[in-house]
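Internal tracking record. Fields below are filled automatically when a chain is submitted to the structure queue. Please do not edit lines marked as system-generated. If the sequence contains nonstandard residues, flag them in the REMARKS field before resubmitting.
Queue: standard
Priority: normal
Entity type: single polypeptide chain
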Amino acid sequence: GSNAGESSPLLSHVTFSGNEALEGGAIYANAQGNGRVLLLASDATFNANSAYDIGGAIALNANEYGNSALTLASSHLTSNISGNGGGAIASLSDYGSSTLQISDSVFSGNVASSDIALGGAVSVWSYSGETAVVIDRTTFDNNQSVEGGAFACNVEGSSACTLKATNSTFT
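SYSTEM-GENERATED OUTPUT FOLLOWS
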């Protein structure tokens, strides 16, 4: 067996504003080599964060059989920007798995800005990995990207990306 690590940050009643990074303007979470990252954010605000590459506010990375999970509840993600995808949230699975559970939240005015960008609000890439996205009672308003203003999923190889959205609004 392996001795894989685990990280489980809990963010409640917090604000991230004006942060900048290469990936994950406010938060970057990486799980690899059978490691696990389980990020829970409740009643959080992510405003005007930026990432040069992916995940204007949050970027999750699961590779080499790692597992990443984000549970986001009662949160507001506004005016975040990324260059290549996931104006607010980006998830990358490369021989790993990711789960995004989003509820009772608002995504407004997020932008993925390059001419190859995917997902103005949320973008998922799965390369020989698996990603599941569940969205409930959430509003997506005026998010922008070349492809997938609100949501984009890109899969390659033996990958899977599933999306289940209920009681939500996409405008």
